[in-house]
Amino acid sequence: QVQLAESGGGLVQAGGSLRLSCAVSGRIDPHYAMGWFRQAPGKEREAVGAITWSGGGTIYPDSVKGRFTISIDNAKNTVYLQMNSLKPEDTAVYFCAARHYADGEFRYWGQGTQVTVAS
Q1: Lateral strand order in the sheet of 18-26
Q2: So what's the pLDDT on residue 114?
Q3: Which of 59, 66, 106, 108 has a CA that sits 20 to 30 A from residue 97's CA?
Q4: DSSP 36
């Protein structure tokens, strides 16, 4: 089992920055990938990036590429999502998730943290 807990959400003006944190506990190992997702009201959940637990590779969708950066501190078992140049359309609940390479989907999810970008 893997437990995830996000923090760092809040209200920010357009153009501002926020850094979200995801504290990871449980049976995590280098065979996991970590992902950040978001869901706005009335919209489907959207992936905003992923990183290998070793930190060796990241991937982002075009909607956030160049603005969002995922990083990982293995010593602290924490995954970060640095969000810069925020736009009102980035407003959503942001979730951290974990996926073992043997699984076909992200199995473990945090409770989410609200990010609101004011125009």
Answers
A1: 2-7, 18-26, 78-83, 68-73
A2: 98
A3: 66
A4: E
pLDDT tens digits for range 90-119: 999 999 999 998 988 999 999 999 999 999
- Rounded to an integer, what distance in angstroms lies between the CA atom of residue 115 and that of residue 92? 6
Name which of 64, 39, 49, 46 is nearest 114 in CA terms. Answer: 39
For residue 102, the 8-state DSSP code is: T
Q: 46 burial class (0-12, 13-18, 19+ CB within 10 angstroms)?
A: middle
86-to-12, 17, 23, 42, 63 alpha-carbon distances in Å? 8, 6, 23, 20, 11
Burial state string for 8-42 with b = 16 or more CB within 10 A and e = fewer than 16: bbeebeeeeebebbbebeeebeeebbbbbbbeeee
Nearest-angstrom CA–CA distance, 106 and 42: 22
Per the model's pLDDT, the better-predicted residue between 103 and 7 turns out to be 7
Q: Which tokens go with 41?
A: 């009201």
